[in-house]
Amino acid sequence: MVLRSGEWVVLVGAVLIIGFSVVSGVIIYVKPPPVEYAYLENEHTIAGEAIYRSQGCGACHEIFGNGPSFGPKLDGVGSKRDKVWLRAYLLKPRSGVSDRPYRLKMQPVADLTDEELDALVDYLEALKKLNQGDNEADISARHDS
Q1: Shared-domain flag, residues 91 and 23
Q2: Do 57 and 122 belong to one domain?
Q3: What is the pLDDT of residues 99-110, one digit of tens each?
Q4: 129 φ, ψ (degrees, to nearest 5)
Q5: What is the DSSP code (8-state) at residue 129?
Q6: 92 and 117 in contact (C-beta within 8 Å)?
Q7: How many alpha carbons fall within 13 Å on the CB side of residue 104?
Q8: For the chain: N or C, fewer Cβ within 10 A?
Q9: Distance (Å, whole) CA 128 – CA 122
Q10: What is the pTM for the complete model shown?
């Protein structure tokens, strides 16, 4: 079977792409990227995550690289804000709390029960930023105390 010149180009391109993918995979396997954030999961935060999803918060906010950036990223928000602040903000959002301005204004989550709001706050508070040298067990111990 004889390949024409255009077929050779496609074949060589495919081999290069496969080779690059293999090399990238090996590099990531050998030295994974550093972990910057932790999610301290428990029964209450799982309920809060379900509320986060059902309320459509992920349509505007990004967590761990997933989601759009219409609103502020929520990575590490639990390290920046406490439960009281998060609860007050969810009930009465205001502009000017982020590093940059956004065109969309967040709507209050007034239709949630107190238990649902507490679960959502717990979920957001569980999104922690790791300090250099920390692991999830270190930050979980600080969170529990």
Answers
A1: no
A2: yes
A3: 777 777 888 887
A4: -95, 130
A5: E
A6: no
A7: 12
A8: N
A9: 11
A10: 0.68
